[in-house]
């Protein structure tokens, strides 16, 4: 006798929400950062409500009781969205007005340093034509927060504060976290529209939205959510045949954060598999031209500062070391010394070769296939890079959630007579 699929899904929901609740409870007590603790206290309520609601659904299902309008599994997601994302973000934006940026006191930060740094980079861009300071000319010891380890596009999210900030109301409304959130939401809506509004599985929302890494990032920082949102949008554009636009959007993504650069290879293989060499050429041309337009002007203003901030510092070879040092395998291996660092990079290289072979031997034919390969590649990169943070795992989690949405749309397409996900060349061959 097979188990009731609805009860099985509810059991998985309960395990997921309970794990999230434990994570939040632990952070209320041990989190180093003020913002983390504020988030955790709100999140306990959101995840707690999700646990209670799911438990009630399980009891009702076991006894065959009607649940009415409250029977939707989306209610738990809604509680998390309210209590673990919207409310803590609003609270922290207001708390930030007390002025605790740039202090070496993590227990008082209402926003993580990346928020201040990106807002400062926009101000520097307007004043100097480059978001990067010459750290060799500061006249003092270099500090971590002197660096802007992002590409020029990330500066855009700080422009509202640089242009319109100044008073309490203006500062609250132009906090860069709102910009990150708006960009992420806009990318989700555009992606769903491109995919013709597929049904969103609850499991997709759990991975991409309700997971603590996503909710916490949304409240205390946010740039990674904007970037992964744009990344998913570039995959949707490529999947729906908009190769040039996909290349343009991906250039924006890579210009903001180099961690997503492997997407160039994945999308290139996807396009040549689905659409052929012409689509790949359009994608590559848009990618190259947009990248040059975005980077060359800033590079020419101060080439040395550009290289120091964008490349040397994130790679751990700048004037000071990156604080990205979560105890993941790559970091632990590299901590053994020069030999350990060499081994870490060797493992990373091996992983890259294995994934490349996977791409070539079994090229992705659908958007969900491509997202799977991208997620696996990023997991390898994050786990094996000597300087990394566990928070970057939000990228593969969101990509896996997006994969389920893409898969839902692809399944719907194949269910419609005369439609399918085969490349156009194959479709025309079979129809002739």
Report what the structure shows.
- The protein is an all-alpha fold.
- The protein has two domains: about 1-110, no CATH class; about 110-415, no CATH class.
- Helix content is about 70%, strand content about 0%.
- It contains 19 helices and no strands.
- Helix 8 (about 200-210) runs antiparallel to helix 18 (about 395-415) and helix 13 (about 275-300) crosses helix 14.
- It is globular, with a radius of gyration of 23 Å.
- It is a multi-pass membrane protein.
- Pfam families: GT87.
- This is DUF2029 domain-containing protein.
Alpha carbon gyration radius: 23 Å
Structural class: mainly alpha
Mean pLDDT, as a whole number? Answer: 92
Give the tally of structural domains: 2
Query: What sequence of helices (H) and strands (E) makes up the elements?
Result: HHHHHHHHHHHHHHHHHHH
Share of residues in helices: 55-70%
SS field, number of helical segments? 19
**Proportion of residues in β-strands:** under 5%
Count of strand segments: 0
Distinctive features:
single chain, mainly alpha, transferase, hexosyltransferase activity, DUF2029 domain-containing protein, 2 domains, transmembrane helix, 432 residues, disordered C terminus
């Amino acid at each position: 006798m097979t188990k009731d699929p609805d009860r099985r899904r509810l059991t998985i929901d309960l395990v997921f929400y309970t794990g999230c609740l434990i994570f939040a409870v632990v952070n209320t007590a041990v989190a180093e950062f003020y913002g983390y603790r504020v988030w955790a206290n709100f999140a306990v309520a959101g995840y707690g409500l999700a646990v209670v609601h799911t438990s009630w659904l399980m009891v009702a299902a076991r006894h065959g009781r009607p649940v009415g309008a409250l029977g939707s599994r989306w209610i738990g997601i809604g509680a998390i969205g309210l209590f673990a994302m919207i409310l803590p973000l609003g609270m922290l934006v207001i708390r930030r007005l007390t002025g605790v940026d740039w202090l070496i006191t993590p227990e008082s930060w209402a926003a993580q340093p990346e928020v201040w740094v990106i807002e400062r980079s926009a101000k520097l861009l307007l004043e100097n034509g480059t978001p990067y300071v010459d750290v060799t000319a500061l006249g003092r010891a270099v500090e971590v927060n002197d660096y802007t380890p992002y590409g020029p596009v990330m500066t855009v999210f700080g422009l509202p504060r640089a242009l319109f900030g100044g008073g309490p109301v203006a500062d609250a409304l132009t906090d860069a976290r709102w910009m990150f959130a708006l960009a992420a939401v806009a990318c989700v809506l555009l992606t769903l529209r491109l995919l013709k509004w597929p049904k969103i599985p609850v499991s997709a929302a759990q991975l991409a939205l309700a997971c603590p890494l996503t909710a916490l990032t949304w409240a205390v920082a946010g740039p990674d959510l904007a970037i992964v949102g744009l990344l998913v949008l570039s995959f949707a554009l490529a999947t729906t045949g908009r190769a040039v636009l996909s290349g343009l959007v991906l250039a924006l993504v890579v210009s903001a954060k180099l961690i997503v650069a492997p997407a160039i290879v994945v999308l290139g293989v996807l396009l040549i598999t689905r659409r052929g060499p012409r689509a790949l050429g359009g994608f590559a041309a848009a990618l190259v031209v947009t990248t040059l337009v975005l980077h060359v002007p800033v590079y020419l203003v101060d080439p040395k500062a550009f290289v120091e901030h964008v490349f040397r510092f994130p790679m751990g070879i700048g004037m000071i070391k990156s604080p990205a040092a979560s105890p993941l395998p790559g970091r632990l291996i590299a901590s053994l010394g020069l030999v350990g660092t060499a081994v870490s990079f060797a493992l990373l290289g091996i992983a890259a070769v294995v994934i490349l072979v996977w791409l070539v031997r079994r090229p992705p034919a659908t958007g969900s296939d491509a997202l799977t390969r991208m997620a696996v590649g990023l997991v390898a990169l994050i786990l094996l890079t000597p300087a990394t943070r566990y928070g970057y795992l939000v990228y593969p989690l969101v990509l896996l959630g997006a994969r389920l949405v893409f898969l839902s749309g692809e399944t719907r397409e194949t269910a419609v007579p005369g439609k399918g996900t085969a490349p156009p060349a194959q479709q025309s061959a079979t129809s002739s």
